[in-house]
Amino acid sequence: MEDSYIIRGGKKLSGEVTLSGAKNAALKMIIASLLFNEKVVLENVPRINDVVELLHLIRSLGASADFIDKNRIEIDPTSLNQNKVDLLHASKIRVSFMLFAPLLYKFGNCLVPNPGGCRIGARPIDRIVDGMKNLGVEIRYISRTGFYEAKLPDKPRGSFTFNKPSHTGTELLIMLSVFGKDRIILENCANEPEIDNLIDFLNQSGAKITKNNSRIEIDGVAKLKFSHPFKIIPDRNEAITYVCLTLATGGSLLLKDLPIESIGIFVDKLRQAGVEVKESPEGLFFRRGQHLKAVNIETTPHPGFMTDWQPNWAVMMTQANGKSIIHERVFENRFSYVEELKKLGAKIKFIDAKVENPSDFYFFNYKKGRNYSQTVEIDGPVRLHGGILNIADLRAGASLATAALASEGESAVNGVSILERGYEDFVKKVGNLGGEIKKI
Ligand code: EPU
Prior knowledge:
Elements: E1 4-9, E2 15-17, H1 23-32, E3 40-43, H2 49-60, E4 64-69, E5 72-76, H3 87-92, H4 100-107, E6 109-113, H5 126-134, E7 138-142, E8 147-151, E9 159-161, H6 167-177, E10 183-187, H7 193-204, E11 208-212, E12 215-219, E13 230-231, H8 236-248, E14 252-255, H9 264-272, E15 275-280, E16 283-288, E17 292-293, E18 297-298, H10 310-317, E19 320-327, H11 337-343, E20 347-350, H12 358-361, E21 375-380, E22 388-390, H13 394-405, E23 409-414, H14 416-419, H15 426-432, E24 436-439
Helix pairs in contact: 1-2, 1-7, 4-6, 5-6, 8-10, 8-13, 10-13
The structure holds uridine-diphosphate-2(N-acetylglucosaminyl) butyric acid.
Uridine-diphosphate-2(N-acetylglucosaminyl) butyric acid binds at residues 23-24, 27, 95, 120-128, 166-169, 190, 192, 237, 301, 306-308, 330-331, 363-365, 394-395, 422.
Protein backbone atom coordinates (compact mmCIF):
# COMPACT_ATOMS: atom_id res chain seq x y z
CA MET A 1 0.00 0.00 0.00
CA GLU A 2 1.25 3.50 -0.83
CA ASP A 3 1.80 5.04 2.59
CA SER A 4 4.58 7.64 2.18
CA TYR A 5 5.13 11.04 0.70
CA ILE A 6 8.36 12.03 -0.95
CA ILE A 7 8.69 15.77 -0.57
CA ARG A 8 11.24 18.14 -2.06
CA GLY A 9 11.06 21.19 0.17
CA GLY A 10 12.51 24.66 0.39
CA LYS A 11 10.13 26.35 -2.07
CA LYS A 12 7.84 29.25 -1.23
CA LEU A 13 4.23 27.95 -1.40
CA SER A 14 1.47 30.41 -2.28
CA GLY A 15 -1.99 30.46 -3.77
CA GLU A 16 -5.55 29.54 -2.93
CA VAL A 17 -6.99 26.47 -1.26
CA THR A 18 -10.57 25.28 -1.56
CA LEU A 19 -11.38 23.88 1.85
CA SER A 20 -13.10 20.51 2.23
CA GLY A 21 -15.99 19.88 4.60
CA ALA A 22 -15.06 19.64 8.28
CA LYS A 23 -14.15 16.11 9.41
CA ASN A 24 -15.29 16.82 12.95
CA ALA A 25 -18.70 17.94 11.74
CA ALA A 26 -19.23 15.36 8.98
CA LEU A 27 -18.58 12.35 11.25
CA LYS A 28 -21.25 13.49 13.72
CA MET A 29 -23.74 14.39 10.99
CA ILE A 30 -23.39 10.86 9.58
CA ILE A 31 -24.13 9.37 13.00
CA ALA A 32 -27.02 11.81 13.58
CA SER A 33 -28.51 10.69 10.23
CA LEU A 34 -29.21 7.34 11.88
CA LEU A 35 -31.74 9.10 14.15
CA PHE A 36 -34.09 9.52 11.15
CA ASN A 37 -36.63 7.03 9.84
CA GLU A 38 -35.95 7.95 6.23
CA LYS A 39 -33.09 8.62 3.79
CA VAL A 40 -30.80 11.55 4.49
CA VAL A 41 -28.41 13.32 2.10
CA LEU A 42 -25.36 15.24 3.30
CA GLU A 43 -23.27 17.56 1.15
CA ASN A 44 -19.68 18.78 1.30
CA VAL A 45 -18.63 15.59 3.08
CA PRO A 46 -14.84 15.18 2.90
CA ARG A 47 -13.72 11.95 1.21
CA ILE A 48 -11.20 11.10 3.91
CA ASN A 49 -10.21 7.82 5.54
CA ASP A 50 -12.19 8.48 8.75
CA VAL A 51 -15.42 9.05 6.80
CA VAL A 52 -14.86 5.94 4.66
CA GLU A 53 -14.22 3.93 7.85
CA LEU A 54 -17.37 5.25 9.54
CA LEU A 55 -19.48 4.38 6.48
CA HIS A 56 -18.12 0.81 6.66
CA LEU A 57 -19.07 0.64 10.32
CA ILE A 58 -22.58 1.88 9.63
CA ARG A 59 -23.07 -0.65 6.86
CA SER A 60 -21.95 -3.39 9.26
CA LEU A 61 -24.95 -2.38 11.40
CA GLY A 62 -27.33 -3.00 8.49
CA ALA A 63 -27.94 0.57 7.30
CA SER A 64 -26.97 1.65 3.82
CA ALA A 65 -24.55 4.55 3.57
CA ASP A 66 -22.31 5.56 0.70
CA PHE A 67 -21.00 8.36 -1.47
CA ILE A 68 -23.36 9.18 -4.33
CA ASP A 69 -21.04 11.84 -5.69
CA LYS A 70 -17.52 13.07 -4.87
CA ASN A 71 -18.65 14.83 -1.66
CA ARG A 72 -22.29 13.84 -1.26
CA ILE A 73 -23.48 10.88 0.73
CA GLU A 74 -26.80 9.18 1.16
CA ILE A 75 -27.65 7.32 4.34
CA ASP A 76 -30.66 5.07 4.67
CA PRO A 77 -31.08 4.11 8.33
CA THR A 78 -34.33 2.20 7.85
CA SER A 79 -32.51 -1.13 7.44
CA LEU A 80 -30.45 -0.81 10.68
CA ASN A 81 -30.71 -4.27 12.22
CA GLN A 82 -27.74 -4.64 14.61
CA ASN A 83 -27.52 -3.17 18.09
CA LYS A 84 -23.97 -4.42 18.72
CA VAL A 85 -21.12 -2.33 17.33
CA ASP A 86 -18.42 -4.56 15.91
CA LEU A 87 -15.14 -4.36 17.87
CA LEU A 88 -12.83 -4.34 14.86
CA HIS A 89 -14.68 -1.61 12.98
CA ALA A 90 -15.11 0.46 16.13
CA SER A 91 -11.43 0.25 16.97
CA LYS A 92 -10.63 2.05 13.72
CA ILE A 93 -12.84 5.04 14.34
CA ARG A 94 -13.10 6.63 17.75
CA VAL A 95 -16.43 8.39 17.26
CA SER A 96 -18.04 4.92 17.16
CA PHE A 97 -19.11 5.44 20.79
CA MET A 98 -21.47 8.18 19.57
CA LEU A 99 -23.59 5.40 18.08
CA PHE A 100 -25.12 5.02 21.55
CA ALA A 101 -27.63 7.72 20.61
CA PRO A 102 -29.17 6.24 17.43
CA LEU A 103 -28.90 2.63 18.64
CA LEU A 104 -30.63 3.35 21.95
CA TYR A 105 -33.34 5.25 20.13
CA LYS A 106 -33.83 2.48 17.57
CA PHE A 107 -33.46 -0.68 19.73
CA GLY A 108 -33.85 0.47 23.36
CA ASN A 109 -30.53 -1.20 24.21
CA CYS A 110 -27.11 -1.63 22.64
CA LEU A 111 -23.55 -2.84 23.04
CA VAL A 112 -20.72 -0.49 22.17
CA PRO A 113 -16.98 -1.17 22.63
CA ASN A 114 -14.93 1.04 24.91
CA PRO A 115 -13.22 3.51 22.54
CA GLY A 116 -10.17 3.07 24.76
CA GLY A 117 -6.86 4.89 24.53
CA CYS A 118 -5.52 6.81 21.61
CA ARG A 119 -2.25 8.24 20.44
CA ILE A 120 -3.03 11.74 21.68
CA GLY A 121 -3.98 10.73 25.21
CA ALA A 122 -6.03 8.39 27.38
CA ARG A 123 -9.31 9.86 26.06
CA PRO A 124 -11.70 8.24 28.53
CA ILE A 125 -15.48 8.77 28.18
CA ASP A 126 -16.24 9.04 31.90
CA ARG A 127 -17.90 12.49 31.62
CA ILE A 128 -20.01 11.31 28.73
CA VAL A 129 -21.14 8.14 30.55
CA ASP A 130 -22.08 10.31 33.57
CA GLY A 131 -24.11 12.52 31.29
CA MET A 132 -25.94 9.58 29.75
CA LYS A 133 -26.78 8.23 33.23
CA ASN A 134 -28.12 11.62 34.27
CA LEU A 135 -30.48 11.58 31.30
CA GLY A 136 -31.83 8.16 32.27
CA VAL A 137 -29.63 5.71 30.35
CA GLU A 138 -28.72 2.56 32.27
CA ILE A 139 -25.15 1.88 31.31
CA ARG A 140 -22.41 -0.37 32.64
CA TYR A 141 -19.00 -1.37 31.47
CA ILE A 142 -18.27 -5.09 31.24
CA SER A 143 -14.48 -5.31 31.59
CA ARG A 144 -14.55 -9.01 30.63
CA THR A 145 -15.80 -8.15 27.13
CA GLY A 146 -14.57 -4.56 26.77
CA PHE A 147 -18.11 -3.46 25.85
CA TYR A 148 -20.50 -0.96 27.38
CA GLU A 149 -24.02 -2.34 27.77
CA ALA A 150 -26.62 0.41 27.62
CA LYS A 151 -30.38 0.44 28.02
CA LEU A 152 -32.92 3.22 27.64
CA PRO A 153 -35.97 2.18 29.68
CA ASP A 154 -37.85 5.43 29.08
CA LYS A 155 -37.43 8.63 27.07
CA PRO A 156 -34.35 10.62 28.18
CA ARG A 157 -35.09 13.44 30.62
CA GLY A 158 -33.43 15.69 33.18
CA SER A 159 -30.31 17.81 33.05
CA PHE A 160 -26.55 17.50 33.17
CA THR A 161 -23.60 19.79 33.88
CA PHE A 162 -20.23 18.73 32.46
CA ASN A 163 -17.50 19.11 35.09
CA LYS A 164 -15.16 19.95 32.18
CA PRO A 165 -16.41 20.45 28.62
CA SER A 166 -16.24 17.66 26.09
CA HIS A 167 -16.74 18.28 22.36
CA THR A 168 -18.02 14.84 21.30
CA GLY A 169 -19.66 14.44 24.73
CA THR A 170 -21.77 17.54 24.10
CA GLU A 171 -22.74 16.24 20.67
CA LEU A 172 -23.68 12.79 21.94
CA LEU A 173 -25.90 14.21 24.69
CA ILE A 174 -27.58 16.55 22.19
CA MET A 175 -28.37 13.59 19.90
CA LEU A 176 -29.66 11.59 22.85
CA SER A 177 -31.92 14.45 23.97
CA VAL A 178 -33.58 15.17 20.64
CA PHE A 179 -36.46 12.77 21.43
CA GLY A 180 -36.39 13.46 25.18
CA LYS A 181 -39.25 14.03 27.59
CA ASP A 182 -39.92 17.65 28.59
CA ARG A 183 -37.01 20.07 28.41
CA ILE A 184 -33.47 18.74 28.82
CA ILE A 185 -30.80 21.20 29.94
CA LEU A 186 -27.08 20.67 29.37
CA GLU A 187 -24.58 23.00 31.01
CA ASN A 188 -20.86 23.76 30.76
CA CYS A 189 -20.99 22.30 27.25
CA ALA A 190 -18.27 22.61 24.63
CA ASN A 191 -18.60 25.47 22.15
CA GLU A 192 -16.92 24.35 18.92
CA PRO A 193 -18.52 25.57 15.66
CA GLU A 194 -18.87 21.93 14.60
CA ILE A 195 -21.41 21.55 17.45
CA ASP A 196 -23.38 24.52 16.07
CA ASN A 197 -23.36 22.82 12.67
CA LEU A 198 -24.87 19.67 14.23
CA ILE A 199 -27.54 21.74 15.99
CA ASP A 200 -28.37 23.48 12.68
CA PHE A 201 -28.76 20.10 10.97
CA LEU A 202 -31.05 18.75 13.69
CA ASN A 203 -33.10 21.97 13.91
CA GLN A 204 -33.48 22.04 10.11
CA SER A 205 -34.98 18.57 10.55
CA GLY A 206 -37.51 19.58 13.20
CA ALA A 207 -35.52 19.34 16.45
CA LYS A 208 -35.94 22.08 19.05
CA ILE A 209 -32.50 22.97 20.33
CA THR A 210 -31.32 26.35 21.58
CA LYS A 211 -27.76 27.14 22.55
CA ASN A 212 -26.59 30.05 24.59
CA ASN A 213 -22.81 29.85 24.96
CA SER A 214 -22.21 26.75 27.02
CA ARG A 215 -25.88 26.16 27.98
CA ILE A 216 -28.05 24.07 25.69
CA GLU A 217 -31.79 23.49 25.99
CA ILE A 218 -33.53 20.72 24.09
CA ASP A 219 -37.28 20.28 23.87
CA GLY A 220 -38.01 16.73 22.78
CA VAL A 221 -39.79 16.11 19.48
CA ALA A 222 -41.48 12.93 18.24
CA LYS A 223 -39.36 12.48 15.12
CA LEU A 224 -36.91 14.11 12.72
CA LYS A 225 -37.97 14.93 9.19
CA PHE A 226 -35.44 15.24 6.36
CA SER A 227 -36.22 18.40 4.38
CA HIS A 228 -33.24 19.06 2.07
CA PRO A 229 -29.56 18.06 1.74
CA PHE A 230 -27.52 19.48 4.57
CA LYS A 231 -24.15 21.11 3.86
CA ILE A 232 -21.19 20.50 6.17
CA ILE A 233 -19.18 23.60 7.17
CA PRO A 234 -15.63 24.11 5.82
CA ASP A 235 -12.84 22.49 7.81
CA ARG A 236 -11.09 25.11 9.94
CA ASN A 237 -8.45 22.61 11.08
CA GLU A 238 -7.56 22.03 7.44
CA ALA A 239 -7.53 25.81 6.95
CA ILE A 240 -5.02 26.32 9.74
CA THR A 241 -2.79 23.62 8.29
CA TYR A 242 -2.54 25.41 4.93
CA VAL A 243 -2.06 28.81 6.57
CA CYS A 244 0.86 27.53 8.66
CA LEU A 245 2.24 25.65 5.68
CA THR A 246 2.34 28.62 3.31
CA LEU A 247 3.59 31.03 6.00
CA ALA A 248 6.31 28.63 7.17
CA THR A 249 7.64 28.53 3.60
CA GLY A 250 7.47 32.35 3.32
CA GLY A 251 4.42 32.44 1.02
CA SER A 252 0.83 33.71 1.13
CA LEU A 253 -2.64 32.14 1.06
CA LEU A 254 -6.22 32.96 0.15
CA LEU A 255 -8.99 30.97 1.83
CA LYS A 256 -12.58 31.24 0.66
CA ASP A 257 -15.74 30.64 2.69
CA LEU A 258 -14.15 30.41 6.14
CA PRO A 259 -15.83 32.57 8.82
CA ILE A 260 -13.04 34.47 10.59
CA GLU A 261 -14.77 33.99 13.98
CA SER A 262 -14.16 30.24 13.78
CA ILE A 263 -10.39 30.90 13.92
CA GLY A 264 -10.46 34.26 15.76
CA ILE A 265 -7.72 33.62 18.31
CA PHE A 266 -5.49 32.07 15.64
CA VAL A 267 -5.79 35.27 13.59
CA ASP A 268 -4.94 37.36 16.70
CA LYS A 269 -1.83 35.27 17.30
CA LEU A 270 -0.81 35.51 13.63
CA ARG A 271 -1.09 39.30 13.77
CA GLN A 272 1.10 39.32 16.88
CA ALA A 273 3.61 37.28 14.88
CA GLY A 274 3.66 40.01 12.23
CA VAL A 275 1.45 38.27 9.66
CA GLU A 276 -0.85 40.39 7.51
CA VAL A 277 -4.43 39.03 7.66
CA LYS A 278 -6.99 40.71 5.41
CA GLU A 279 -10.71 40.02 5.18
CA SER A 280 -12.25 40.82 1.79
CA PRO A 281 -15.18 39.65 -0.36
CA GLU A 282 -12.78 37.14 -2.00
CA GLY A 283 -12.01 35.54 1.35
CA LEU A 284 -9.33 35.60 4.02
CA PHE A 285 -5.85 36.52 2.87
CA PHE A 286 -2.67 35.74 4.83
CA ARG A 287 0.80 37.08 4.01
CA ARG A 288 3.95 36.87 6.01
CA GLY A 289 6.15 39.93 6.51
CA GLN A 290 9.90 39.68 6.07
CA HIS A 291 10.27 38.12 9.53
CA LEU A 292 7.96 36.16 11.78
CA LYS A 293 7.96 37.01 15.49
CA ALA A 294 7.95 34.29 18.12
CA VAL A 295 4.56 34.12 19.89
CA ASN A 296 3.54 31.89 22.79
CA ILE A 297 0.32 29.91 22.79
CA GLU A 298 -1.69 27.87 25.24
CA THR A 299 -4.32 25.46 23.93
CA THR A 300 -7.88 25.55 25.29
CA PRO A 301 -11.27 24.55 23.84
CA HIS A 302 -13.03 26.94 21.43
CA PRO A 303 -12.97 29.95 21.36
CA GLY A 304 -9.42 29.40 22.62
CA PHE A 305 -6.43 28.29 20.57
CA MET A 306 -7.42 24.77 19.49
CA THR A 307 -5.25 21.81 20.39
CA ASP A 308 -5.51 20.60 16.76
CA TRP A 309 -3.61 23.68 15.59
CA GLN A 310 -0.56 23.59 17.81
CA PRO A 311 1.55 21.05 15.86
CA ASN A 312 1.28 23.25 12.74
CA TRP A 313 1.95 26.37 14.79
CA ALA A 314 5.10 24.71 16.17
CA VAL A 315 6.48 24.20 12.65
CA MET A 316 5.77 27.83 11.78
CA MET A 317 7.52 28.95 14.97
CA THR A 318 10.72 27.13 13.90
CA GLN A 319 10.89 29.91 11.27
CA ALA A 320 10.14 32.79 13.70
CA ASN A 321 12.66 35.06 15.38
CA GLY A 322 13.15 34.16 19.04
CA LYS A 323 11.89 31.67 21.56
CA SER A 324 8.25 30.66 21.72
CA ILE A 325 6.37 28.36 24.06
CA ILE A 326 3.46 26.00 23.44
CA HIS A 327 1.50 24.80 26.46
CA GLU A 328 -0.93 21.96 25.66
CA ARG A 329 -3.88 21.89 28.09
CA VAL A 330 -6.45 19.73 26.27
CA PHE A 331 -4.78 16.37 25.53
CA GLU A 332 -1.93 14.81 27.47
CA ASN A 333 -0.01 13.38 24.54
CA ARG A 334 -0.02 15.74 21.61
CA PHE A 335 3.68 16.20 21.01
CA SER A 336 4.54 13.12 18.94
CA TYR A 337 5.98 15.48 16.30
CA VAL A 338 8.71 16.90 18.58
CA GLU A 339 11.32 14.16 18.13
CA GLU A 340 10.58 14.08 14.39
CA LEU A 341 11.14 17.83 13.98
CA LYS A 342 14.51 17.48 15.71
CA LYS A 343 15.55 15.15 12.87
CA LEU A 344 15.19 18.13 10.51
CA GLY A 345 17.34 20.34 12.72
CA ALA A 346 14.57 22.13 14.64
CA LYS A 347 15.52 23.52 18.04
CA ILE A 348 12.58 22.29 20.08
CA LYS A 349 12.62 20.86 23.59
CA PHE A 350 10.31 20.02 26.48
CA ILE A 351 10.45 22.42 29.40
CA ASP A 352 8.85 22.46 32.85
CA ALA A 353 6.03 24.91 33.31
CA LYS A 354 4.76 25.77 36.77
CA VAL A 355 1.03 25.19 37.08
CA GLU A 356 -0.71 26.15 40.32
CA ASN A 357 -3.72 23.87 40.15
CA PRO A 358 -3.17 21.27 37.41
CA SER A 359 -6.45 19.41 38.06
CA ASP A 360 -8.38 22.53 37.11
CA PHE A 361 -5.90 23.86 34.57
CA TYR A 362 -5.81 20.81 32.31
CA PHE A 363 -8.90 19.64 30.44
CA PHE A 364 -7.91 15.96 30.65
CA ASN A 365 -8.25 14.01 33.89
CA TYR A 366 -5.00 15.01 35.59
CA LYS A 367 -3.52 12.30 37.82
CA LYS A 368 -1.28 13.42 40.68
CA GLY A 369 2.14 11.79 40.67
CA ARG A 370 2.16 11.01 36.96
CA ASN A 371 4.77 12.74 34.82
CA TYR A 372 3.32 14.97 32.15
CA SER A 373 5.23 16.81 29.40
CA GLN A 374 2.79 19.51 28.34
CA THR A 375 5.11 22.33 27.32
CA VAL A 376 7.66 22.82 24.58
CA GLU A 377 10.01 25.67 23.75
CA ILE A 378 11.01 26.41 20.17
CA ASP A 379 14.02 28.51 19.25
CA GLY A 380 14.04 30.03 15.78
CA PRO A 381 14.63 30.72 13.04
CA VAL A 382 16.34 27.53 11.91
CA ARG A 383 17.11 26.42 8.37
CA LEU A 384 15.51 22.98 8.33
CA HIS A 385 16.95 20.17 6.23
CA GLY A 386 15.35 17.02 4.79
CA GLY A 387 14.96 13.77 6.72
CA ILE A 388 12.89 10.64 7.27
CA LEU A 389 9.77 11.32 9.30
CA ASN A 390 7.22 8.97 10.86
CA ILE A 391 3.63 9.99 11.56
CA ALA A 392 2.03 8.88 14.84
CA ASP A 393 -1.22 10.88 14.84
CA LEU A 394 -3.33 12.91 12.44
CA ARG A 395 -2.45 16.53 13.25
CA ALA A 396 1.18 15.65 13.91
CA GLY A 397 1.12 14.11 10.42
CA ALA A 398 0.08 17.39 8.81
CA SER A 399 2.76 19.24 10.77
CA LEU A 400 5.47 16.82 9.59
CA ALA A 401 4.46 17.19 5.96
CA THR A 402 4.51 20.97 6.53
CA ALA A 403 7.98 20.77 8.07
CA ALA A 404 9.25 18.69 5.14
CA LEU A 405 7.90 21.28 2.69
CA ALA A 406 9.64 24.04 4.66
CA SER A 407 12.97 22.12 4.69
CA GLU A 408 15.77 22.29 2.17
CA GLY A 409 16.19 19.04 0.24
CA GLU A 410 14.29 15.78 0.11
CA SER A 411 12.24 14.14 2.89
CA ALA A 412 10.28 10.93 3.20
CA VAL A 413 7.15 11.13 5.35
CA ASN A 414 5.88 7.68 6.36
CA GLY A 415 2.46 6.65 7.63
CA VAL A 416 0.46 9.13 5.54
CA SER A 417 -2.74 7.06 5.76
CA ILE A 418 -2.96 8.58 9.27
CA LEU A 419 -2.74 12.10 7.82
CA GLU A 420 -5.30 11.15 5.18
CA ARG A 421 -7.76 10.18 7.93
CA GLY A 422 -8.48 13.91 8.05
CA TYR A 423 -7.16 15.63 4.90
CA GLU A 424 -8.84 15.31 1.53
CA ASP A 425 -6.66 15.58 -1.61
CA PHE A 426 -3.63 16.65 0.40
CA VAL A 427 -1.15 15.90 -2.40
CA LYS A 428 -3.24 17.76 -4.99
CA LYS A 429 -3.83 20.80 -2.78
CA VAL A 430 -0.14 21.09 -1.85
CA GLY A 431 0.76 20.64 -5.51
CA ASN A 432 -1.59 23.49 -6.47
CA LEU A 433 0.30 25.74 -4.04
CA GLY A 434 3.54 24.89 -5.82
CA GLY A 435 4.78 22.15 -3.48
CA GLU A 436 6.73 19.15 -4.78
CA ILE A 437 5.07 16.13 -3.21
CA LYS A 438 4.51 12.61 -4.46
CA LYS A 439 2.72 9.67 -2.85
CA ILE A 440 4.52 6.34 -3.07
N1 EPU B 1 -12.13 13.79 28.40
C1 EPU B 1 -12.22 12.99 29.51
N2 EPU B 1 -13.40 12.33 29.76
C2 EPU B 1 -14.48 12.45 28.93
C3 EPU B 1 -14.38 13.27 27.79
C4 EPU B 1 -13.19 13.94 27.54
O1 EPU B 1 -11.26 12.87 30.27
O2 EPU B 1 -15.52 11.82 29.21
C5 EPU B 1 -10.87 14.51 28.12
C6 EPU B 1 -10.21 14.06 26.81
O3 EPU B 1 -9.42 12.91 26.99
C7 EPU B 1 -9.41 15.30 26.44
C8 EPU B 1 -10.28 16.46 26.95
O4 EPU B 1 -11.16 15.88 27.92
O5 EPU B 1 -8.18 15.29 27.10
C9 EPU B 1 -11.13 17.12 25.87
O6 EPU B 1 -11.79 16.11 25.14
P1 EPU B 1 -13.05 16.32 24.21
O7 EPU B 1 -14.06 15.29 24.60
O8 EPU B 1 -13.46 17.75 24.17
O9 EPU B 1 -12.40 15.94 22.79
P2 EPU B 1 -13.00 14.91 21.78
O10 EPU B 1 -14.45 15.16 21.69
O11 EPU B 1 -12.54 13.55 22.07
C10 EPU B 1 -12.86 16.39 19.63
C11 EPU B 1 -12.25 16.29 18.27
C12 EPU B 1 -10.74 16.43 18.40
C13 EPU B 1 -10.47 17.82 18.98
C14 EPU B 1 -11.18 17.98 20.33
C15 EPU B 1 -11.10 19.38 20.86
C16 EPU B 1 -13.72 14.88 17.04
C17 EPU B 1 -13.94 13.59 16.37
N3 EPU B 1 -12.58 15.01 17.68
O12 EPU B 1 -12.31 15.36 20.42
O13 EPU B 1 -10.21 16.36 17.09
O14 EPU B 1 -9.09 17.96 19.16
O15 EPU B 1 -12.59 17.67 20.19
O16 EPU B 1 -11.90 20.22 20.09
O17 EPU B 1 -14.55 15.77 16.95
C18 EPU B 1 -8.67 15.69 15.44
O18 EPU B 1 -9.49 16.07 14.59
O19 EPU B 1 -7.49 15.37 15.15
C19 EPU B 1 -9.08 15.63 16.84
C20 EPU B 1 -8.39 14.95 17.76
